[in-house]
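Q: I have 214 residues here and want to know how they pack in 3D. Can you give me a structure?
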Amino acid sequence: MFLIDRVSKSYGANAVLVNASLEIEKGQLVVISGDNGSGKTTLLKIAATLLTPDEGNVGIKDEYGHTLVRSDNIRKFISYVSHSSFLYDNLTLNENLKLFAKLMKLGSKDEGWVDLLDRFNILQFQNAKVRELSHGTKKKVSLCRSLMQPARLMIWDEPDSGLDDSSTRTLSEIIKGQIQKGISVLLTSHNQSFVDTLECDAFRLQSGSLRFKS
């Protein structure tokens, strides 16, 4: 179980999150919606331990039932995709994924990501420099990189942004596959038609707090 426990965050006098709490079970898909500026990205960064809340904690229960709250212990269970690709522009697509695999100690063989690239129909860009790729292709690479990591929780900030209809359908299928494997997924999206393709628990971030969407 992943826990967001009474998290609050302010930027100056602007309270973005106010006692936001959420529990995500194993194999559960949670989608968070909200207006621009409502705090969705801030919440996901806090959940991914990339941003420290003013109050509250995030935690994850390990295999022994202990709740871990230290960032270095939680982070190894999480795979995160943000609006930024964090890819190296001067490296090729393949070189970026090989570097990520090395840093994450996933091994140097590329078989694991070739299938992912093929599913998103971007195998033909393996040897292209990242700076030459479109925004949508970079998003697909970021998603493939995230899926390479053996995480318990996928945290994706608007993963469908910039994707064409075919790739959005592929993303929906991949998310359903992750859930079937018992991997939890927390994501945001403005695309209601995409969300409607998913069997998820939906929450709306409003006035800094999470409200279940019935």
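Q: Anything worth noting?
A: The radius of gyration is 17 Å. The longest strand covers residues 14-24.
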